[in-house]
């Protein structure tokens, strides 16, 4: 039985709306594909099958059921410019940091619930557009500020688009003045939770896990965390 023939002339390939639940080695038959659309299927994982691809420019995996960032070949890592992962089940983005040529990344409508998980963005020095709308973090009142703290300094400018809105000059100025390692800004979950009772009421800055100099949590709004003071200990009887 002869080996299957490759399709060297194919540059654009779409498998959208095919109810695919898995990929296989047949992707090796597309050695020169530049645009691949696998959106609107039922993929939970891509395993290592996308590693068969070469110098791909754009990959769309929107509206599947992925729980991790797919792995790519060394060639793809150096060529991929557009990656669409909207509408999956991603709660981490580990693995995206190797895609150093990315310019547009769509992670909207996933399960990202803490801005500290966005630290891999700091490696994406060519990023121009980022979409995170529809994630739990999108509804945090400091979402844009916390997201900016995770970006590479090279991309923070007035042309950068976050959730389809360009950065304002005030956002850029705040980033430059307050730029600190992302960990120090996200010691606590970015989605506030009800704190456990303590014997004393902590000050507001410690509740947010941020110092006053960080510029976070200083807006004139009521705190999002309710702390219930513990019972006062009674003195011992003589």
Automatic annotation (TrEMBL):
Which residue ranges are recorded for the region named Disordered?
178-238
* Keywords in alphabetical order: Cytoplasm, Leucine-rich repeat, Repeat
Coiled-coil positions: none
What InterPro entries does its record include? Answer: LRR_dom_sf (IPR032675)
Which Gene3D superfamilies does the UniProt entry name for this protein?
A: Ribonuclease Inhibitor
Q: Ranges of Polar residues compositional bias?
A: 211-220
Q: Where in or outside the cell is it found?
A: Cytoplasm
Q: Does the keyword Repeat apply?
A: yes
Q: Which GO terms describe its cellular component?
A: cytoplasm
Establish whether keyword S-adenosyl-L-methionine is in the entry: no
Predominant location = cytoplasm
The molecule here is called: Uncharacterized protein
Q: What is the lineage of its organism?
A: Eukaryota, Metazoa, Spiralia, Lophotrochozoa, Mollusca
